[in-house]
Amino acid sequence: MITALDKHYHLAKNDYELELSDLEFSLLRVAAAFERWRADCMACCFDQPFSGADTAVLNVIRMHNRPKSISDIGRQLNRDDQSNLQYGIRKLVKAGVIKKASTGDSKKGVTYAVTELGREATDKYAKFRRDLLIKLTQSISTEQSLTEVGTVLNLMAGMYDQAACVAAAHRISN
Fold first, then answer.
1. Residue 107 has pLDDT above 60, yes or no
2. Does residue 108 register a pLDDT over 90?
3. In this predicted model, what pLDDT tens digit does every residue of 55-103 receive, in sequence order?
């Protein structure tokens, strides 16, 4: 006779906490797989070692074909790690896929745009994505269900951000 595993542990003392913990671990696995996918897909398109995060920054800068500031990019990606974003942007500039588009009176006035090389790389990325990933995702879902999943994930991002704000007020000082 097979008995059910007791999955309760320090993060999950009841069934709801267990379900949330299982979801969180699923999100971690999806995030890691998504990071690998973006990096590996870009490696098919461009001969430079870009991480998934670098690839996301490049695609955000290309979005709507208009220059973006670091704060625009951070907002779009829900990132507040300015120094890591700046490092990624320097890497993309050095590779020649983006360039400074404008500079204002201060650092906040700097925006970035894709170069022709960046446009070619992101076009290739979009084609590989279409050829490899879109076919896979169409086999498991419809446009409506992807919209619903995206809405739930965005709501959860907001909840985690709110919880992080409250937690920040209770940090143990060093």
1. no
2. no
3. 999 999 999 999 999 999 999 999 989 999 999 999 999 999 999 998 6
Distance CA 63, CA 66 (A): 7
**Distance between CA atoms of residues 51 and 39, nearest Å:** 5
Tokens of residue 67, six digits: 């220059």
Say how far residue 25 (Cα) sits from the centre of its chain: 17
Q: What domains can be seen in the chain, in order of their start residue? A: 16-167 (1.10.10.10)
Distances (CA, A) of 149 to 23, 75, 156, 168, 173: 13, 21, 10, 28, 38
Q: E strand or H helix at 69, and its extent? A: strand 68-69
Question: Considering only CA atoms, which of 107, 102, 74 is closest in space to residue 88?
Answer: 74
Q: Specify the pairing of strand 68-69 against strand 98-102.
A: unpaired
Beta-bridged to residue 102, according to DSSP, are 111
Nearest to 101 by CA among 75, 80, 76, 72: 72
pTM: 0.83
